[in-house]
Amino acid sequence: MTDVEMARISAGSVLRGDLRGVERREIVVEAFEIGVYPVTEEQVADLIGIPARNPRHPATEISWLRAIRLCNALSEWEGLDPVYSFDGEVVRPDPDSDGFRLPTEDEWEYACRAGATGPAYGAVRDIAWTAADGLRGPVDVGGRMPNLHGLFDTLGNVWEWCSDLYDPEGESDARVFRGGGWSDAPAEVRAAARRGGRPRDAFDDVGVRVARGPIPGLG
């Protein structure tokens, strides 16, 4: 299988959100690891047998529930303890597991920003694939400039699922995805950009980037 390359992100803090939104607060995270790239079609093909038409494209049409199962499959492939257990569609993370998981929203934004406090960590045309490129779908990962953590495609190309509920105060079970994608206008591809979908929903512009490390709030 093609290895999932991970980057070590040191503990620290950064300001979450931007001037367009109402939320502006400090993110504080512990050290963790996160994928250098979104999970690719080739990696999904190796793990769960979905054919890869474009091996280096980020895998899309992956629901949140499938993303969770993908994390477990990757953990088992690497000989690690799976993070997630299931009771029907109720997902429970194991705080003692050393396996792969989805990043939290705070982890995702902290890793994406790499210290930047503006809307993006560089000029969008240089770091992200967006609607300005006239695309009809995702493109190979790693084709634009990385951030200072060495992460590619956190902005643009595809949105990425996180572990969190989209509206923790509401009644919906929708989960959040972050970062903007290939069909979004450049002005909307920002480190603070967020949308949500039900756990069974799948989209042609939403993928997944895996993380490892103690689960915030559970350890």
Automatic annotation (TrEMBL):
Entry-linked InterPro entries = CTDL_fold, Sulfatase_Mod_Factor_Kinase, SUMF_dom, SUMF_sf
Q: Which residues form the Sulfatase-modifying factor enzyme-like domain?
A: 54-212
The protein's matches in Pfam families, at most eight in alphabetical order, are given as: FGE-sulfatase
Protein name in the entry = SUMF1/EgtB/PvdO family nonheme iron enzyme
Question: Which species?
Answer: Microbacterium algihabitans
Q: What lineage does UniProt assign to this protein's organism?
A: Bacteria, Bacillati, Actinomycetota, Actinomycetes, Micrococcales
